[in-house]
Amino acid sequence: MKPLYNIFIIACLLLSPEGMRAQFATIDEVLLLIKSNNKELRKNAALADAQKAQISSENNLPDPSLSYAHLWNGREKKESISELVISQSFDFPTVYATRHRMNRFKHNELDADKENFRQQLLLQAKEICFDLLMLQQQQALLEERLRQANVLDTMYRRRLEMGDTGILEVNKVRLEL
User: Fold this and answer.
1) What's the whole-model pTM score?
2) Alpha helix locations (H) across the chain?
3) Which of 15, 30, 90, 109 has the most beta carbons within 10 angstroms of its beta carbon?
């Protein structure tokens, strides 16, 4: 829930009436800013890169082994035999080719997951931007209605003082206000 909260805060600051006029012209610019500064996106990309590196490292040869044996000759005490053994295990070459192909599929899957996460985050940000724009328009409309209701209220109060209207009409206007 924290990434959504961060997106909401950024969008509120960027799409406020003063901020919108001063800095940004379109939602696309806000989305570009979120894309470049969002820590969740960076963390997800770094995680995907680390997983790719781990997958790639699994197709390497295992580490070689080294052993040393010092054998004493039982017949003559002066003579000794030493043996140094270095061994390397490996699989049949087609196994490495198959693993490489599987690793490519896994890399593509990780890239798709990363792109899906990015798109979901930007979609949430865009929805929040649209909600903020709608609320700004709604607020402007309600402020205009309030201004008009205040004008009507003052006009009907004057008419009541002059005797042109009744208290019922004044109360209707006050109720609207």
Assistant:
1) 0.63
2) 2-15, 17-22, 27-37, 39-57, 93-162, 167-176
3) 30
